[in-house]
Write a structure and sequence with these properties.
The structure is a single chain. The model has no long low-confidence stretch (mean pLDDT about 90). The protein is about 50% helix and about 0% strand. With about 80 residues, the protein is mostly helical. The longest helix has 15 residues. It has one domain. α1 runs antiparallel to α2 and α2 crosses α3. The chain is globular, with a radius of gyration of 13 Å.
Amino acid sequence: MHCPDAIGNPFLYLRLGQCQLELGNEEHAADELARAYMAEGHVIFEDQDPKYLAFLKTKLEPPPGGWADEKKKPWD
């Protein structure tokens, strides 16, 4: 089966990572979720269960300047 535009698709990486985490395959989950984060940043995780981004944060060093989703808004 051929799936055009699958390679490099951040949404597919997100879903693959979620599936791997639910199956208990943390190493594969971290790899796929990191690919999604590298392509789209924290935005791709916004409408997802927060456990996926929280899990990823335990596996990666924070990006330069810190995690974007944790930065204070000027009006906070």
